[in-house]
Write a structure and sequence with these properties.
Layout lengths: L7 E4 L2 E4 L7 H6 L10 H15 L6 H18 L1 H20 L14
Antiparallel strand pairs: 1-2
Helix pairs in contact: 2-3, 2-4, 3-4
């Protein structure tokens, strides 16, 4: 696991300082719940931010969470490129496993081939 040295998130007048980790490929596969599409690196990162915020008993909307995660992600690209690359590596490895499981079909209701 790769730990961020110290990252501070200020939200609702509460300061959260908590290191977080990059999930491994098995964790990514396990929290997909039957999905046939693997998450990209930003979605993996956003999930990690959401987990840290939830662990502190805070609740925020998806839009706010995405904006917060995006701001942190942009900062990390400049200051912690190894962390960003770690998320990219996990996402790419998970994608290879998902693609290796077979074709990806998406069911669309009401559509018919004639």
């Amino acid at each position: 696991y790769y730990y961020i040295k110290v990252f501070e998130v200020k939200l609702m007048r509460v300061t959260i300082i908590d290191p977080f980790t990059v999930p491994n490929v098995n964790e990514v596969i396990n929290f997909q719940n039957g999905s046939t599409v693997s998450p990209n690196c930003f979605i993996l990162f956003r999930r990690e931010v959401q987990t840290r915020i939830s662990d502190k008993g805070l609740r925020i909307g998806r839009t706010t969470l995405s904006k917060l995660s995006s701001a942190i992600w942009k900062d990390l690209r400049d200051n912690e490129p190894n962390l960003v690359n770690s998320f990219k590596t996990v996402a790419n490895n998970a994608k290879r496993i998902f693609c290796g499981r077979g074709l990806r079909f998406r069911h669309v209701r009401g559509s018919r081939i004639r």
